[in-house]
Amino acid sequence: MPQGIQDAVLIRTGLRCNSACRFCEHGAELRDQGDREPAEVLADIDAADVSGKTVVLSGGEVTLHREALDWVERAKARGAARVVLQTNGRMLAYSKWVRRLLRAGCDVFAVALHGHRAELHDWLTQSEGSFEQTVKGLENLRAAEAVTLVNCVITRSNYRHMPELVQLVNRYGVVAVRFVWPRLSGDANNEWPMLEASPSMVSRYARLASTVGERLRVRVSFDGIPMKSQAEVQHVG
Questions:
Q1: Which residue of 10, 26, 109, 221 shows the fewest CB atoms closer than 10 Å?
Q2: pTM of this prediction?
Q3: What is the span of the domain harbouring residue 230?
Q4: Is residue 1 in a domain?
């Protein structure tokens, strides 16, 4: 769930995705099952108590669905105070798609970015060119003056670059970054030896990332870091 959002209504749109992240908690078998029927997603929105609340649309990858516009519009029509779209940002490289989502009523974009440069991000997503697309998406969101958050999964490969990631996304007007500890499920089960970072080492770079965030006025928070390390970074998260 995006940072700072309490009492949110989560709407799952299906697990199909155009990336294959090494830490994906779902795994290839579930992703290959495809997506839910669009009408099922609309029914979930209608059945939920969304009035005055935040609705979070989450996949898989929500932006692969042209029906995402219908889901955003339905949530707003049902009285949602805010609609948040969780995305890897790749389809947002198309500026027209960004504008259409904003017109439909999307209030916040929570974009996944897992590295400060292409080699790192693309290795983690196992999708060549995904960094370039996601950064272009952030650029388009900035141009459209959209409210944008960034989610980053902490791994052995990227934790040393947490401060640089905060610096990078600040260029695109991102208001907040949430660093998330990976879950030991799905694809992460097989990749865990390459994914798991040392919590004590992570805490050092978490403090540095928080310091950069304070300087740049980007809110930095942390989710799921093992408790010993969480205590070390809590005061800056």
A1: 10
A2: 0.90
A3: 9-236
A4: no
Q: What are residue 145's phi and psi, to 5 degrees?
A: 60, 40
Q: How many folded domains does the chain comprise?
A: 1
Are 64 and 53 spatial neighbours (Cβ–Cβ below 8 Å)? Answer: no
Which domain CATH number covers 66?
3.20.20.70
Q: Residue 237: pLDDT above 50?
A: no
67 in a structural domain: yes
User: Can you give the three-state secondary structure of 110-168, one letter per residue?
Assistant: EEECCCCCHHHHHHHHCCCCHHHHHHHHHHHHHHCCCEEEEEEECCCCCHHHHHHHHHH
pLDDT digits (tens, 9 = 90+) for 160-182: 999 999 999 999 999 999 999 98
Specify whether the backbone of 217 is left (phi greater than 0), alpha (psi in -120 to 50) or beta.
left
CA distance 28 to 128: 18
Does the residue 3 lie in any domain? no
- 163 vs 16: which has the higher pLDDT: 163
Handedness of CA 194, 227, 218, 25 (dihedral sign): positive
Residue 23 DSSP code: T
Q: Please give the C-alpha separations between residue 56 and each of 105, 177, 216, in angstroms, as whole numbers.
A: 13, 17, 27
- Report if residue 2 sits inside a domain: no
- Please say if the pLDDT value at position 3 is more than 50: no
